[in-house]
Amino acid sequence: MNQTTMALGQKFPLTIKRLGINGEGVGFFKRNVVFVKGALPGEEVTVKITKLQRNFAEAELLSIRKQSEDRQEAPCPVYDECGGCQLQHMTYEAQLKNKRDIVIQALEKYVPEIAANADIRPTLGMDNPWHYRNKSQFQVRKEGKRVYAGLFTEGSNKLLNINDCLVQHPVTSKITVGTRKILQKLNIPIYDGKTLNGLVRTIVVRTGIRTGETQLCLVTTRNELPHKAELIERIKKIDPSIVSITQNINREKTSLIFGDETIVLDGKETIHEELGELAFDLSSRAFFQLNPEQTVHLYDEIKKAAALTGKETVVDAYCGVGTIGLWLARDAKEVRGMDVVPESIVDAKRNARHHGFQHARYYTGKAEDLLARWRREDFTPDVITVDPPRTGLDRKFIESVLKIKPKRFVYTSCNPSTLAKDLQQLTKIYHVEYLQPVDMFPQTAHVEVVTQLILKKSH
């Protein structure tokens, strides 16, 4: 960055050209990149520099001189403070367009020829882009006599009390608020983030959107729970959907929500949830997609891209509890999945058994090690599907894919930047047939993409 042209506190007009990966507006001042939170593409704004880095600057939005027609009033009363959502000030139609654009920007940076030539489809959105999250994890703190439950404001240790979060399923909000009031009434000790004293840290609520079963989990610093019987009775009265009340013990000073030990206080250990034709039993700590309605669309896109006819062998790498492989199992000759988390593999095996899929097998270990071993045993999959963490694919895994050359490779990504970087390697032997963005988290800057890669004829 040409530092001499800008100084902290400097104010100047700026035209916003596009949306950044975190939902901020991006403009250029004397060829320097400037990120402006809250500004929208096409707007002419006045900004003030708040942070200078070597290759970019951050600025505060002072005023809007020319407003975008995509701008709207954010419906959430604590939107500006919370930081949980980044795009409520933009109409939903525009959010979908800009998410596709975020994908294109990432491709332009790392694989410009794909950005120019590939079929990048319109983002698949939701009919109702609100109240979609099936799980909330709200921190609990006390001020004076009042018990608060909510999220910490962006970059601070101030807890924002949230009664009705517009992206949460309404039943999760109702149960969180009800529980918070009961904790206050019964005067149950609340965790103090500074002194680390107190008992109740977090209220976690997850609801089965299809089944209507809800689980409440109280995360506490130790096993004891004063007024336990009365607490349980009162919680059960908050909502008839509650079928499971659990307590998780997390003694550590950590930002992780859960500890290792979970006790069932009342009802069942798990709640039941369905995705399409698949059914799952979810314990308090089990991973499950946060937006089940859109997950069905996402998995259907993966199924389309896998293009199975019943004759193919499929490998589901980074398989977690096996959901994607099971979604494809009915149309596959054989499914093999792997993950480095042993508990996930236990769940995946149980899920396969539960659905009667005898031809789906699951293994604990690294994808690249297992693929190499199977290759020696003369097993090469026809299709590989991946849904890796935000960091993208492991380099060794990419190397093994380039060696074994499955006919089709379906890459589901939650981070367009790492997807684009990985495509640099994969396109040595694969042709990118199309990319399908899917909006899993409306009102936020996140975007998922399903990419279909087909082995080039020459390989």
From TrEMBL:
Q: Which amino acids does the record list as binding S-adenosyl-L-methionine?
A: 289, 318, 339, 387
Question: Is Transferase tagged as a keyword?
Answer: yes
As for family, the record states: Belongs to the class I-like SAM-binding methyltransferase superfamily. RNA M5U methyltransferase family.
GO MF, one example: 4 iron, 4 sulfur cluster binding
Alphabetic keyword roster: 4Fe-4S, Iron, Iron-sulfur, Metal-binding, Methyltransferase, S-adenosyl-L-methionine, Transferase
Its recorded name reads 23S rRNA (Uracil(1939)-C(5))-methyltransferase RlmD
Q: Which InterPro entries match?
A: MeTrfase_TrmA_AS, MeTrfase_TrmA_CS, NA-bd_OB-fold, SAM-dependent_MTases_sf, TRAM_dom, U5_MeTrfase_fam
SUPFAM superfamilies, from UniProt? Nucleic acid-binding proteins (SSF50249), S-adenosyl-L-methionine-dependent methyltransferases (SSF53335)
